[in-house]
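Field: sequence (string)
Field: structure_tokens (string)

Example rows 1 and 2, in order.
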Amino acid sequence: MSSESAVSEARREDASERPVVLVIGHGMVGNKLAELLVRLGATRTMDVIVVGEEAVGGYDRVHLSSLFSGSTSGDLNLVDPDIAADPAVSFLSGERVETLDCEERVAVTDQGRRIGFRFAVLATGSVPYVPDVPGKELPGCFIYRTLDDVETIRHWSAGRERGVVVGGGLLGLEAAHALSSCGLATDVVEYAPWLMPAQLDEIGGDLLGRRVRNLGVEVHTATTLVEVHAGADGAVERAELADVADQSDRATLATDIVVFAAGIRPRDELARAAGLKIGERGGIVVDSRCRTSNPDVFAIGECGLIDGRVHGLVAPGYQMARVLSETICGGDARFSTT
């Protein structure tokens, strides 16, 4: 679909012609929902509009580190050409939904575009958690989340020698792989007693730690970052660490870059402003059909809080997309982790 026709589709506010499914967020899960809706035949009677903040949407965020070893952004593209060619599907990139009026069923973007909808789906994902430590804003400190982040990290790493990754979960290990691919001697700092604590037990975490060390990455578990220190040029020079159980037990690592990949926080600010129910610790509360406190608004992926839990992996997000696509098409699927 041409950008001109996509814009004309998105500007329609009268859902009486054809109902609109508005997907807010064009990450992996939002992209999967659009694909499933087309494959289930929803676009025979509905239009699907997907709005994404990034200039490039629908890419494989899980394998960002492959960009450091020769892959291109095109290699990570997950948008099926057949889906994009469906005349009922519009992808609007580089545009952010700023307000969501659930009662009037209208969303307004940062470009002033008003999009009417029958159903709205929040697939806004998450943001990286950055611990509140002194020096976190220094030149040489980065987050690891997007294509733009990768390009910035790659540029900074050129000609440098050492890097520290804060976070030993899946995203942190991907970031460590990325720095290693740039030729940097890399250390991983993890607060928990073992790596990937959300997915592995102690035995599995220890085995993974040995494997990571054998690949040349140093691992510091049960350890926390307490401060990032600058050198004479004002950029990152040292990372000060402390033992979790004994904060007086300190160590310092020389480093040229610090990458924060220490978990995520659900992006629920749009839903919060719209008056939707939010969990006590964040996340958009949804039921087993991914429906929010408003029956015409849904949430899927890392922004959704289902059964009291936010799932930070893509597989549960894809399952939520499948449940919701069937729900929109009249089915009765339910989300389950069993």
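Row 2 begins here:
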Amino acid sequence: MNSNALSRCGFVLLLGRPNVGKSTLLNRILGQKIAIISDKPQTTRTRILGVKHLPEGQIVFFDTPGVHRPKFKLNQRMVQVATETLREVDLVCFLVEADPGTVSGGALIGPGDRAILELLEGIKTPVLLLINKTDRVKKPALLPLIDAFSRAMHFSEIIPVSARTGDNVDHLLSILLSKLPEGDPIFPDEMVTDQPVRVIASELIREKILQKTREEIPYSVAVALEDFKEEEGRDMIFIRATIYVERDSQKGILIGHKGEKLKQVGTEARRELEGLLGVKVALDLWVKVRKDWRRDEVFLKEIGL
């Protein structure tokens, strides 16, 4: 860094509906995967911190659960995490989706986005509108969407991006950094996230379940790591995890015929964990039924949600 240059550092909140691409954008910005992704809404359940180190400063991102109408205690906690973080940041990035169906006809601002606009009413923190998934539409098709949101709220900036391809992400980082306060870096250069490896490991297992299951199963699953240890004298880490579901029928679906579904989950999770940890991984998965765990506050605390 130029010794005469002013260093900037601050906190940025990624806010938006479920499945709008917040976690994909964070992973793209950081250049590595710290947040799990899937095509299922409500994939992110807790607040995830990611640190982007730049020559001119440091941007600390918070990826939060998607804002939605909560049905269970779990969902209430997820929405609470997102809204409470609003008070802790220097900038808010409100992500919306450049959905071809929405852009080409019908209501340009859906009820989910309107609920977030109401949440942002009156806050003093600058808000940037990020229109994600622009790789799905032609640029002129974005103009009506930009106009509709501009009429609904004043935004500090409106920036089209594609988290999937990385288009315009460098420009976004430049804009964010220019709006952050002057200050020295908060976190050391080697730090990318505050997520413990155990938490990332359990979330990777849950990601594979999300990708392999349908209907109510993805939302009825929790993963708790029971054991995480290095095998002495062997370049290997042993991980034992319990997958909780709410009903016996869900347990049968997740295990699959002759255990095939659970085996697929375990194989894909193990491969990704080995890439993350840089060593061989022995992964032992068990499935247990915990009736209505999403409504159980004691259990939610036990598994860190």
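free_text_note (row 2): The mean pLDDT is 82.
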